[in-house]
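[step 3/7] inverse_fold.run input=structure_tokens len=943
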């Protein structure tokens, strides 16, 4: 509140005359305030009859004060001491009382100051000031210097002798003054907007649906303090504007600006009045009015009497997210128009400020089930396959579209395992036909997990779990086995039995060992390893149980190309070769040779030949001797090595081509497995993973993911990885296994600014005209898009017109107005069902934070759920005859007895045999810690 207290001390020393544009009379000192009064008087100009002769002063202090020594001044020669002129009321003015002074005004424009002395050019002497009609009155500059007025401002007036201008009781400046058609000299001010002035403050936009905002516009040329104004719908439904917290704008409303206020409004019909006072039945107090939905609202008759509305007119009802807007001229219902996207806080014809969002809804369905095989057929407990003919057998259900990845450890290795060469997995239904009676072993190859150093049999099982030294190369990589594939070591036959009308068919996988390790045999000295392009080394191994003297043994490639071993200098080892030891010798060789190891130099005698290997081509000089000795098959040879540093190695089991292979890791001087348990393939317990996306377990060239594969590859322990797949969330639903396999239909995204989603009416019967049924039953998004467009909401259909499967996505661009509290919603059909769909929850995901910053990231994934639209009876997921992929046409299924739109809290998996999956809220986000159905991820990014 303005408090212009008496300036006794500051002015008591003035002895100068008035400035030379005023009278030459003596200085009149200001009156004393009583010297020890308990309080102080404070005087303000309160009302001015600018075309008459009355000025009202109000004491808003807390003690009486004597006004007899105060002055009123309009300008040079236009002043008077209050004690010398006619007044009405007590000049010794009590607190809270009024004094009316009769003082001739200057007609339609002027500025009057209340002074504590006749120093009219002194800012210290000026107590209060008001200016009307025009700027630039004689004392404006003094008021500006005193800080109680702004240069160039004035109270606009109509020039009506019946009107006055009044102060609102608080503050300084033009915004605290207004013209009234109800003068109240000697009493409290009453603001009754003159008819011609009423449209300077107008109701400009009303959003009565889901936002409940009222916008007021100042279309005048001065600021107006609206704190004393009121908004009224009818008896008991009113608010003083000064008690409301603006959404935007200022209650002291500048010219040309907007004020947006929160007001609870009826959604379908009502009438809102803007009042200058709380005299709600007084036509003089009503400033503006609008009525919607129906006529006859509580204040319609007041607005009609005031001439600002026509009886019986109303603005048609608009949608919940829309608003009604004033066109800027006139007082009829025709001057109000619907606006689909409200422009609250901005001009009604302004294009809304928008942000464009790129939205991606991904089908992330991947892991569909996992099965462990641990116990050999006929066995009493878990264990490996250590003899040829031993088998594992496992059964599982699957549907078309499923990929299949079996994995088993090479038990006599450090961290090698068999898995499909195609990292996308093996298709169980190529060309739509189930694999039946098919051996898929040749589609498997050996991988090195990169977790444990290779070729150290001391750490093969059963040495203990995870006990070997770390591999210096930590990348997952292929094992070079000279072109050998899984069918060298096992058979893996898939048989298929078709399912029923309501469940999937069943596959039986039978894995049989065919290259089980053979005990080391005493073959005496054998050729163990040859490197013929790099160092030209030959390794000889003693497979017997006694020491062998190799001094008189020979190496021979053909005529003239031989050497007695005793004449060669060993690279490592000794010529007097102990049992189980190896000897490495230098011996020059070519790219296409046949090398024989002889017990004498009778090179054409098959009885003298001990061992033989041929590479590069058949037909070498001593091939016929090796064939005669039963050590080789005519025409067999190993292909030329892929790199000079590679070597060829024997497995030690027997002679002949099948027992040799190429390696990129020569092991001269150390064991290559020829006389150990590493001379075959031990098949360990393993897993079958059913999945939809590539690389379900590992990525070539990258380190192990650390989720359990190491336990299989090193130790044949399936449980860590099995348990990782089977892990559940906080609500007991799976964290990683997808509930089922389905595509998503073309979908839609939209934005709304109400309390709840306008399309997905959870807990209610679906609105049959909104397009949700067409989407949820048949994947048709067009009706829902048109419906939301009719509500004036931002909406976009997916760029993809065809369903999207695992690893694919729906993409959208959605342009959304800023500063309107818009939230995100989306919907897409879960196609292998009757009427299920995926959507965000009813509250919507905020697209802007409280600072207006656009949303970005995956936050909209977290409260996305699987819904049942309640429009069609449910059938088994993926098998119903009335589901879109199998029905004859749209909308064929029988109606659901439960018509409520609801979350899907249980899903019976009959595609992969996981049984009943329970997720109370119907969670679909893959990374939700609650667990759920694990099928979707939603990403929002502003452009």
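[step 3/7] decode complete -> sequence:
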């Amino acid at each position: 509140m303005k408090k212009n207290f008496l300036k006794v001390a500051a002015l008591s020393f003035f002895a100068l005359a008035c400035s030379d544009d005023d009278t030459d009379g003596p200085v009149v000192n200001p009156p004393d305030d009583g010297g020890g009064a308990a309080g102080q008087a404070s005087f303000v100009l309160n009302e001015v009859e600018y075309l008459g002769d009355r000025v009202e002063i109000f004491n808003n202090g807390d003690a009486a004060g004597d006004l007899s020594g105060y002055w009123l001044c309009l300008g040079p020669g236009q002043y008077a001491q209050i004690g010398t002129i006619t007044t009405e009321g007590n000049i010794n003015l009590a607190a809270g009382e009024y004094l009316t002074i009769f003082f001739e005004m200057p007609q339609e424009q002027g500025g009057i100051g209340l002074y504590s002395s006749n120093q009219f050019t002194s800012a210290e002497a000026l107590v209060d000031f008001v200016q009307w009609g025009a700027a630039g009155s004689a004392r404006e500059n003094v008021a500006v210097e005193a800080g109680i007025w702004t240069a160039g401002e004035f109270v606009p007036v109509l020039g009506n002798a019946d009107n006055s201008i009044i102060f609102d009781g608080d503050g300084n400046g033009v915004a605290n003054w207004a013209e009234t058609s109800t003068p109240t000299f000697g009493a409290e001010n009453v603001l009754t907007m003159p008819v011609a002035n009423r449209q300077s403050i107008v109701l400009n936009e009303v959003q009565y649906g889901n936002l409940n905002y009222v916008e007021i516009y100042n279309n005048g040329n001065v600021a107006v303090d609206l704190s004393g104004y009121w908004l009224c719908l009818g008896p008991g439904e009113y608010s003083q504007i000064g008690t409301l917290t603006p959404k935007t704008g200022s209650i002291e409303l500048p010219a040309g600006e907007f004020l947006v206020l929160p007001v609870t409004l009826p959604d379908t019909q009502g009438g809102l009045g803007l009042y200058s006072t709380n005299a709600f039945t007084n036509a003089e107090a009503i400033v503006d009015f609008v009525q919607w939905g129906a006529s006859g609202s509580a204040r319609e008759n007041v607005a009609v009497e005031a001439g600002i509305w026509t009886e019986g007119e109303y603005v048609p009802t608009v949608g919940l997210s829309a608003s009604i807007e004033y066109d800027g001229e006139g007082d009829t219902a025709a001057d109000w128009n619907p606006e689909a996207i409200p422009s609250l806080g901005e001009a009604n014809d302004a294009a809304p400020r928008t942000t464009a969002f790129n939205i991606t809804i991904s089908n992330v369905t991947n892991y569909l089930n996992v099965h462990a095989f641990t116990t050999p057929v006929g066995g009493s407990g878990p264990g490996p396959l250590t003899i040829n003919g031993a088998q594992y057998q496992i059964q599982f259900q699957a549907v078309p579209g499923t990929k299949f990845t079996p994995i088993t450890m090479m038990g006599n290795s450090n961290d090698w395992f068999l898995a499909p060469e195609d990292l996308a997995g093996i298709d169980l239904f190529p060309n739509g036909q189930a694999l039946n009676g098919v051996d898929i072993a040749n589609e498997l190859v050996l991988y090195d997990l990169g977790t444990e150093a290779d070729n150290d049999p001391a750490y093969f099982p059963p040495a203990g779990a995870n006990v070997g030294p770390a591999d210096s190369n930590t990348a997952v990589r292929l094992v070079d086995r000279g072109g050998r594939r899984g069918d060298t070591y096992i058979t893996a036959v898939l048989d298929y039995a078709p399912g029923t009308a309501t469940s999937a068919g069943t596959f039986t996988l039978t894995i049989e060992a065919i290259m089980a390790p053979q005990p080391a045999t005493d073959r005496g000295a054998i050729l163990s390893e040859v490197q013929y392009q790099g160092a030209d080394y030959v390794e000889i191994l003693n497979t017997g149980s006694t020491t062998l003297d190799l001094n008189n043994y020979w190496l021979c490639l053909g005529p003239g190309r031989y050497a007695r071993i005793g004449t060669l200098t060993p690279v490592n080892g000794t010529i007097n070769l102990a049992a189980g030891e190896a000897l490495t010798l230098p011996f020059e060789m070519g790219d296409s040779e046949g090398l024989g190891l002889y017990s004498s130099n009778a090179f054409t005698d098959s009885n003298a030949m001990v061992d033989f290997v041929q590479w590069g081509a058949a037909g070498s000089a001593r091939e016929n001797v090796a064939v005669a000795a039963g050590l080789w098959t005519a025409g067999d040879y190993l292909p030329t090595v892929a790199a000079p540093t590679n070597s060829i190695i024997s497995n030690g089991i027997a002679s002949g081509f099948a027992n040799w292979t190429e390696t990129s890791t020569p092991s001269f001087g150390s064991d290559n497995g020829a006389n150990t348990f590493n001379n075959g393939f031990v098949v360990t317990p393993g897993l079958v993973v059913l999945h939809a996306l590539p690389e379900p377990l590992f990525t070539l060239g990258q380190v192990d993911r650390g989720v359990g594969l190491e336990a299989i590859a090193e130790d044949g322990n399936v449980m860590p990885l099995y348990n990782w797949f089977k892990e559940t969330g906080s609500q007991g639903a799976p964290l990683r296994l997808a509930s089922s396999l389905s595509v998503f239909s073309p979908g839609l995204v939209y934005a709304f600014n109400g309390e709840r989603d306008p399309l997905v009416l959870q807990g209610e019967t679906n609105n049959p005209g909104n397009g949700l049924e067409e989407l949820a039953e048949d994947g048709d998004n067009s009706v829902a898009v048109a419906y939301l467009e009719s509500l004036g909401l931002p909406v976009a259909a997916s760029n993809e017109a065809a369903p999207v499967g695992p690893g694919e996505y729906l993409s959208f661009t959605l342009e959304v107005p800023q500063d309107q509290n818009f939230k995100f919603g989306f919907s897409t059909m879960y196609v292998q069902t009757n009427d299920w769909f995926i959507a965000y929850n009813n509250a919507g995901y905020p697209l802007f934070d409280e600072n207006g910053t656009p949303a970005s990231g995956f936050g909209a994934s977290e409260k996305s759920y699987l819904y049942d639209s309640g429009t069609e009876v449910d059938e088994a997921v993926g098998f119903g005859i009335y589901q879109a992929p199998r029905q004859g046409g749209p909308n064929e299924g029988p109606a659901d007895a439960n018509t409520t739109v609801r979350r899907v809290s249980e899903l019976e998996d009959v595609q992969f045999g996981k049984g009943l999956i329970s997720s109370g809220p119907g969670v679909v986000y893959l990374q939700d810690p609650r667990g759920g159905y694990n099928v979707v991820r939603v990403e929002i990014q502003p452009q």
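[step 4/7] annotate
Helices lie at 8-11, 140-146, 300-305, 623-628, 709-715, 719-726, 772-778, 782-790.
Residues 1-37, 674-678 have pLDDT under 50 and may be disordered.
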